């Protein structure tokens, strides 16, 4: 078995936040999901310099790919949960349901890449 270098502190922090997001999703706590999403964004903004990813013997690149894959999966889970909540709201309270938070703005006549806007 090859010995692995210690986990970079940034990756450890990112994993901790991803664990928290996953726990919040599993518990159905929307406030915690929102808070953890913001914390993940803050951690991502503190990413190491690009040169650190190419350092020989560093597992940072591999760890980052794994973390990115996990983040992608959790993001899809958040989007699915939001869509389910929106459908339930429209079904139960059709007069009270508003436009989805994340959707295209009305009045955008252009289409194609870069032309979609979020309403949030």
| Largest sheet composition | none
Distance between the termini: 49 Å
Number of separate strands: 0
* Overall tally of domains: 1
Q: What is the H/E order?
A: HHHH
- The helical percent reads 55-70%
| Quaternary status | single chain
Radius of gyration: 19 Å
Tell me the overall shape: elongated
Q: Are there runs of 5+ residues with pLDDT below 50, and where? A: 112-120
Structural class: mainly alpha
Mean of residue pLDDT?
Answer: 80
**Strand portion, in percent?**
under 5%
> How many helical stretches?
4
Would you write up a description of this structure?
The protein has 120 residues and is mostly helical. The chain has one domain (9-92). It is built from 4 helices and no strands. Helix 1 packs antiparallel against helix 2 (30-44) and helix 1 packs parallel to helix 4 (60-92). The chain is elongated. The N and C termini lie far apart (49 Å). The model is unreliable at 112-120 (pLDDT under 50).
Describe this structure in a few short sentences.
The protein is mainly alpha-helical and 120 residues long.
């Amino acid at each position: 078995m090859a010995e692995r270098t210690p986990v970079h502190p940034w990756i450890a922090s990112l994993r901790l936040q991803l664990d928290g997001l996953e726990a919040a999703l599993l518990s159905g706590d929307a406030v915690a999901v929102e808070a953890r999403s913001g914390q993940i964004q803050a951690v991502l903004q503190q990413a190491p310099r690009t040169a650190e990813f190419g350092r020989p013997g560093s597992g940072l690149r591999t760890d980052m790919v794994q973390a990115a894959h996990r983040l992608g999966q959790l993001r899809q889970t958040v989007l699915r949960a939001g869509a389910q909540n929106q459908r339930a709201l429209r079904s139960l309270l059709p007069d009270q349901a508003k436009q989805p938070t994340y959707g295209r703005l009305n009045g955008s006549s252009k289409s194609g890449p870069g032309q979609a806007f979020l309403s949030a």
